[in-house]
Amino acid sequence: MKKVILLFVAAITFSGTFVSCSSDDDGASLVGKWAFYKTGGAVSGAEILSNYENYCSTKKDYMEFKSDGTYIEHYFNTDCSEETYTSTYTRSGNTITLGTESPETATIMQLSGSTLKVKYTDEDFPEGYGITVFQKIN
Predict the structure, then answer these.
(1) pLDDT tens for residues 8-58?
(2) Which residues contact 31 (CB under 8 A, 6 or more apart)?
C-alpha cells in the first residue's frame, strides 16, 4: 500500500472542476489493461512528464478497466509480489469517476487504441494539474 496512494494520486485522483478538453478518441475503449507509462503535470500549459518507474524490474504496474464497471489496480513490489485494489468506475464523456465512497474524477485528454492520457488535480502542481499517461497492454 506504500506506493498505491501516491500512484493513485499520481494516476487518477481528482477533485475537480475542469473544463473538459477534447480527447483524441478514435472510438477506442477504456476497457482493457493500461500500463503506467509517464507521470508528471502541467503548469501554464507546459507539460513536464517523466517515465513511470516500476518497483519490479520484470513486471509493469497497470490499471484494468472491465466492461462491468469495475477496475483493478495492479502494483508489483520490489520482490515482484503483486498487490491489487478493486473498486468501481463510471465514464461520462471525457470524465472518469473512480470509486463510490470518496469518488475521484479525472479528465481524459487522449484516448486511442494504444494511449490513455488523463489530467487531475495534484498538490505537486498547485498552479496547474497532474498528468498520467498509460499504454494499452491488451
Answers:
(1) 434 443 333 333 344 445 578 999 999 999 999 998 889 999 999 999 999
(2) 65, 66, 67
**Start-to-end C-alpha separation, the chain:** 25
Given a contact cutoff of 8 angstroms between Cβ atoms, the answer to whether 104 and 97 are in contact is yes
What is the pLDDT at residue 26?
Answer: 58
Give dist(CA 136, CA 132) in Å, integer.
13
In tens, the pLDDT along 70-93 reads: 999 999 999 999 999 999 999 999
Beta strand spans in 20-127 (E) = 32-43, 46-51, 62-65, 70-76, 82-92, 95-98, 104-111, 115-120
The CA–CA distances, whole Å, from 30 to 56, 65, 103 equal: 25, 7, 18
Q: Say what the pTM is.
A: 0.80
Instruction: Show Cβ contacts of residue 110 under 8 Å, excluding neighbours closer than 6 positions.
Output: 23, 24, 116, 117
